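Researcher: Watch the backbone:
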Amino acid sequence: MAGLEYFEVESTEPDGGAVYKEIAADVLLDHNLVRVIEKLRIYIDPEIPIFIAVGVLRKLPTEVRLRDFSSVAVEGQTATIAIGDETYLAPLLDILWEKYGKSAVDQPDRFNITITADQPIDPNLQDMIVKDPSETLFKDLIYAMTNIAPEGFKVRRERYGGDRFSYVASENTLLVPADDLLNEQWATMGEHP
């Protein structure tokens, strides 16, 4: 698949493996995960039954701070924010309303926000994180793997940390050999868990 350095689907049923490769490609494209996954290996054995996915993520985009899309002027209990890009306006307003209250945040037009607070406003307001792409990535990955896994594989175990993730699913209780199979998938891909 274009965009992934490594993408392989292995199945004990070759025809099923080809179908699952198409399903995986479609789901990853639909959820815009191709740009964040560098390597992905999926193993399916319907006899056990087990579905395993292991992956390595690309370097994620950094967090978006207020200063990245606006200019901020803070004076005591008042702050004026001039928005240069509306992309993050909705999450910004949610954060400001939570921190200062809706009555303290005024938005006379879509490019300006004024905060009049009861307490002094942080002079480093421009450094506030408005969006962290990694916050939703794990949920998106698990949702995608759940859509790729065979119907009925509801017993599952997910791991996510650093730049790696794994997803194991089955119809049955996951047994100790699942760990061996999981490690085999990492090794086949040339990676370590």
